[in-house]
Amino acid sequence: MENVLDIIDALAHEKGLSPESVKVALQNAFVKTAQRLINEEFAFAAEIDEETKQIRVYQTITVVDDYDDDNLYTEEGDVNQGYISLSRAREEVDPDVDIGDEFQIEHDIESHGRTAAMTLYREIEYHVQRLVEDELYNKYKEKIGTIVNGRVTRVDDKNTTYIEMDEVRAVLPMKSRIKGEEFFVGDVVRAVVRRVNIDKVNGIQIELSRTSPKFLEGLLAIEVPEIGEGVVIVEKAARIPGERAKIALISMHPQVDPVGATVGVKGVRINAVSEELLGENIDCIEYTTVPELFIARVMSPAIINAVSIEGEADNEDNPLKAIVTLPADQKSKAIGKSGINIRLASMLTGYAIELVEQEGGESSEGSKVEEKKDDVSSLEALFG
Fold this sequence. Notes:
By secondary structure, the protein is α+β, with helices and mostly antiparallel strands.
């Protein structure tokens, strides 16, 4: 093949790839073509001559003992062209060769005619396409957990939304959409990259989500400059998408109030995020490493009298228990509508929370909330 370097430059420019990676892909295509045309078991190598701009294919021949019939002959009794006996090698190649030495012979792929041309074309197309997909895979693998924008191209009968993002198409499953959301062809959608896969059959697959806590964190980084610049950090986040969320914030600067900076003047910043999430209420809490204090803050808007930690966390099935003591009139606030407040508090802190009314000092029936592993798994499956 003449002017192979020009072909490499053209492919690299067209596909947005580096010339060196295209060069390797082209060499692999020639090697695979030689194996298909000659023998799959033979060892081939392809080299590019920088001066002539041609690519040459070589087969590696291994020198073996004269009596090594296992390598010198195939199972059918034919001569194995991948090996050569020691005596023959010394006679035909080099009198100083020894067992285990290797040498190369050149194969002219073009001599195989039209079949070789068609096979080579398919191999080049395949290897370049794999290279493009690998580049895209690495690019979007680094974007997992970050927000991307795209335009809706299709919504199927299962309400799976297909979104065009630059050079790739991503998928937003129904389970990863906020309840009540509807998208139509042409809509511009923001979502977080949740998963990136690649395989030989389907190529690169990108899954997006609007229900993941990472989506909430990404929106906050966009709307709140202090979070985007790293002055305020979102330490933890928990969501029940479309309904309510709790975020724990840390300030890296002593003069910056993390909650005030995130909420903004008259709530303008947090409201902008809430609107993107279909009115999801977002509670902002200042994070602390003191678990009792952190749990008391997370139980807001309920007013807590005391928090004590009991037991030891053996595994996910048996997390640490937090005993929360509070006035009787604060119990409903602590639990929240349909238990949403205490569920989010448990998700955010990682503690199984038990509520104890101050009056009488005994636990009321039904006030105990322990998140078992299957409950956590169902929440994750439902909300992303």
